[in-house]
Amino acid sequence: MxxxxxxVGAGSIGSSAAYHIAKEHPELTVALIGPGEPLKKxxxxxxxxxxxxxxxxxxxxxxxxxxxxxALRSTKQYPQLEEETGIKIYEEVRTxxxxxxxx
Length: 103
Hints:
The chain is mostly helical. The protein is about 30% helix and about 10% strand.
C-alpha cells in the first residue's frame, strides 16, 4: 500500500500530527507507525520511556511559563477531541498547583 504521508512514532506527538493532518486534509492517506499500547503495564517499559500510562497527557508543571500555558490550552481541547473520536481520554481526578510569588 502507498501512503501520501508516513509518520514514524505513534507517541503523543506523532499521533497528534497524524490526527491533525488527516482531519485537515481528508484527501491524503496517512500511515502512523509505532508500537501499540501494552495489554498490561510492565515495569520494563523501555519502549515507552517516561510517556507511559494515563498521566502522560497532562503536564502543566514545567520550567518555562510558555510550556505551562500551552499545556493548559491543550487540556481545554480534550472534550472536543473526545466528542470527535468517541474515545474518553481524560478525566481530572486531582489538581495541585504551586507557584512561587512574583519577584
